[in-house]
Every structure is written in structure tokens, then in C-alpha cells.
Design goal:
Strand 2 and strand 3 (129-138) form a beta hairpin. The protein has helices at 21-26, 47-65, 70-80, 103-109, 145-153, 158-161; strands at 89-93, 118-126, 129-138, 168-176, 207-216, 222-231. The protein has a domain at 49-180 and 203-235: Chorismate lyase-like (Chorismate lyase, 3-Layer(aba) Sandwich). Helix 2 packs antiparallel against helix 3. It has a 6-stranded antiparallel beta sheet with strand order 1-2-3-6-5-4. With 247 residues, it is an alpha+beta fold. Helix content is 23%, strand content 21%. It is elongated, with a radius of gyration of 20 Å. It has 6 helices and 6 strands; from the N terminus they run H-H-H-E-H-E-E-H-H-E-E-E.
Length: 247
């Protein structure tokens, strides 16, 4: 269930390609493939580990909801959990939707049928970790020429590029896509924690939670509508070990 609602329906899920990969490569928008990151030790599948995973997911979720910039929240998260050095978020372009912005998106962005709306789809990466996949419908006429050029030719995240416009976000919907704890877990019969090393690995899906939001200028003029799907790499660090507090 969505935690926030304001629309009868939302943008298409991140999906179909507008340009072949070779076109993006020729334009210099797709960097060479990075070597795979060294994975941390897998989390054990224990009740405690599942509680820890849920607490961490909801911590980042709430931080983004309370922030004016998802990029800044991700960068702070990357730094706090040592996901990469330096802890910098880059927006690596991936093929975007080839469908035009629909009437609802135009209504949300307060533009007419003839106004140009551009689509940008990226992986928000911290080092080699993909923390989110984001699709962004934005109004280029409301950005400066330099901002538009930066979005088209670099890997800077949208939120960083438009900082001079004092942006803030209005969340349309926030949805948890995976809960580490199954429904009714609090009513299940008690189970003992497995002996260390005996528990299987905790299997996490790629997508953990998603947000739909509108980005406004400081004067509350809509700049963009975004759909962000946050990925399991936000938990790509060693399983937390709570200190023994004693009896």
C-alpha cells in the first residue's frame, strides 16, 4: 500500500528504451563498464538480521521523505556506511522511456500540450553501488541553459544541478516493495536464533522501496516529476552486530 497518495495513477514503471546503447555510448553518456564491487559478507537469514534490515530501510526512507534532496540523502548514507570512497553520487545514464509525457504528468508540471518535457533515466551510484534507479520528467524551459547542458552531457544528478533554484520535494507516493518481516511475524511461534554461522544467507530482492515526487523551485514552480526505485545496494555493507548489553 502507498504511504502517500495524491493521484489516481502514477508514471509508468521504469522500463522501455528510447535509444540503443550504442547511441548513448557515441554521445559519451555511458561510461565504460565498471568492475564488480567486492561484495561484503552476506547477511545471515535470522530474525535479528531481518529486523535490522527493516530498520535500516525505513531509516533511509524517512530521511529521504524529510529531505529536500534525495541525492543529498543518498550521499550522506553512502558516507555514513562507507559504501565508496569518495562518497559521491553520480547519475549514470541508462535508456529512457520513448513514450511522451502523458496528460497527468503535464498537469502535475503545470505545462500545456505544446511545452517541451524531457525524460532522463539514470542509475544513482555511489562508487560501484547502484543505490537507486530514477526516472525524471523535467521542464527544460524552467532551467538555465547551463543546467540543461549539464544534464545532457554529464553524470551530475538532477538534484545537484538545480540546487541554485532552491528545490524542494513534494512526495506523491512512497511504497515499501519488500518487507524483511513476513505478514503476521509478530504472532508466529517463537523461534530460537540459529547458532552463528549456521543460518542461510538473507536473500534480498533488487528493489526495496520506491518514491514518486514532484520537485519544485523555491518559488513553488514545478521543475520535474520523479520516480525513484531504491535498490538493495543501500545495504551493501557488513551485517550490523548489536553490542551485548548484558542481562
Amino acid at each position: 500500500m502507498y504511504a502517500f497518495t495524491g493521484h489516481a495513477h502514477f508514471p509508468r514503471r521504469i522500463g522501455s528504451a528510447a535509444h540503443p546503447a550504442w547511441v548513448l555510448a557515441v554521445l559519451g553518456l555511458v561510461p565504460p563498464a565498471l568492475p564488480a564491487a567486492a561484495p561484503p559478507s552476506p547477511w545471515r537469514d535470522t530474525p535479528l538480521a531481518r529486523l535490522e534490515a527493516l530498520a535500516l530501510i525505513q531509516t533511509l526512507n524517512s530521511q529521504i521523505l524529510a529531505s529536500s534532496s534525495a541525492t543529498r540523502s543518498l550521499q550522506d548514507w553512502c558516507r555514513a556506511h562507507a559504501l565508496a570512497e569518495p562518497p559521491q553520487i553520480v547519475a549514470r545514464p541508462i535508456p529512457a522511456s520513448d513514450a511522451p509525457a502523458d496528460a497527468r504528468i503535464r498537469r502535475d508540471l503545470q505545462v500545456g500540450a505544446a511545452e517541451t518535457i524531457r525524460n532522463r533515466r539514470v542509475e544513482l551510484r555511489c562508487g560501484e553501488r547502484v543505490l537507486a534507479v530514477a526516472e525524471n520528467w523535467y521542464v527544460p524551459a524552467r532551467l538555465t541553459a547551463a543546467m540543461n547542458r549539464t544534464l545532457e552531457t554529464t553524470q551530475q544528478p538532477f538534484g545537484m544541478v538545480v540546487q541554485p533554484l532552491s528545490p524542494h520535494r513534494q512526495t506523491l507516493a512512497a511504497k515499501l516493495l519488500w518487507s524483511p518481516l513476513p505478514d503476521g511475524w509478530e504472532r508466529a511461534a517463537s523461534r530460537h536464533e540459529p547458532v552463528a554461522g549456521s543460518a542461510p544467507q538473507l536473500a534480498m530482492p533488487a528493489a526495496l522501496f520506491e518514491h514518486y515526487a514532484i520537485v519544485y523551485t523555491g518559488r513553488h514552480l514545478p521543475l520535474a516529476e520523479v520516480h525513484e526505485i531504491y535498490q538493495r545496494d543501500i545495504l551493501a555493507f557488513e551485517e550490523p552486530q548489536l553490542p551485548d548489553t548484558g542481562p
